[in-house]
Design brief:
Layout (H helix, E strand, L loop, with lengths): L28 H12 L3 E3 L6 E3 L5 E4 L4 E3 L3 H16 L18 E6 L5 E7 L4 E7 L11 H19 L16 E7 L7 E5 L2 E5 L3 E7 L16 H11 L12 E2 H4 L10 E2 L6
Antiparallel strand pairs: 1-4, 2-3, 5-6, 6-7, 8-11, 9-10, 12-13
Length: 282
């Protein structure tokens, strides 16, 4: 994160919400664009800056910004990330954006972002040459946007990108070749587990797992065959619940749990029965 210019306080790394982009103070639009540009630049990051050059009345340069690249990710990791981010535009949360753009979007990648109750709306998009970030929201009034805010923000982003294309199409590098690095490996994995087909012992019987698969990309690594404890972490009870659900038992696996405001804040004096959904972000 720090190599990409996102300098967060140590306390943020103790919060599970960070995995969804939740931070105590947030990040600026400039920093967000700068960080995402790392994927477009094959894992290399350049610090954000505003002033490129200052000259005196005679044309002499009195200040010139000097950029320095920092390697954050391998080319393979960046390639895999770009493959994921391209799906946001083809069949994801920004699938209507391409119809609003004047240029070839084959090399366009992006990510939407929405915080609780539409308080913040983001879209960051990259071609191999440029990265643009847009944000809509209220700084401190406590007001929220509507459900249509995401599409409005995408329209705004499209107008910015179209303007760049009309002024300087070469800067976007739309035809740049995003060749797959030799270490990127494709594997057909089970959608159920994210690992290769395998077999597990359930209630004394061995069951082969050969359900629906999907193609997944890895950097110089191949996932193992599925075993009983296939996830990262998880208790014995977690796995028992999962596999019983797999066998067809209705045990509540995968259901959304709602909490009352009292449960969210046990110290609250006022009692309420309002249900609150704790899910945030897309």
């Amino acid at each position: 994160m720090s190599k990409m210019g996102l300098n967060l306080p140590a306390t943020d790394y103790n919060q599970l919400g960070l995995a969804l982009g939740g931070t105590s103070d947030g990040v600026s639009v400039l920093d967000q664009a700068s960080a995402f540009s790392t994927f477009a630049d094959q894992g290399q990051h350049v610090d954000a800056y505003v002033i490129d050059k200052i000259t005196d009345p005679a044309g002499n340069v009195v200040y010139q910004h000097k950029s320095q690249k920092t390697k954050v990710f391998s080319k393979a990791t960046s390639y895999i990330m770009n493959q994921m981010l391209s799906g946001v535009l083809t069949d994801g949360t920004a699938s209507t954006l391409s119809d609003q753009l004047y240029f070839n979007t084959n090399n366009l990648v992006g990510k939407t972002g929405t915080s609780n109750d539409n308080r913040d709306i983001w879209f960051i998009g990259s071609t191999p040459g440029i990265t643009l970030a847009s944000w809509m929201g209220y700084d401190s009034t406590g007001r929220n946007l509507t459900d249509s805010a995401s599409s409005i923000n995408e329209q705004y982003w499209a107008k910015l990108a179209n303007s760049v294309y009309q002024l300087d199409p070469d800067s976007m590098k739309l035809e740049a070749d995003r060749t797959k690095p030799s270490t990127v490996i494709s594997s057909k994995v089970l959608k159920l587990t994210g690992q290769l087909p395998g077999s597990v012992s359930l209630n004394g019987n061995t069951k082969a797992l050969d359900g629906t698969t999907t193609t997944s990309l890895y950097n110089n690594w191949t996932p193992p065959a599925t075993t009983y404890e296939f996830g990262i972490g998880g208790s014995t009870k977690n796995y028992e619940t999962f596999w019983n659900h797999y066998l067809g038992y209705n045990n509540g696996y995968g259901s959304i749990t709602y909490s009352t405001a009292d449960e969210l804040d046990p110290t609250a004096d006022n009692k309420t029965t309002t249900s609150t959904n704790n899910s945030t972000s897309d």
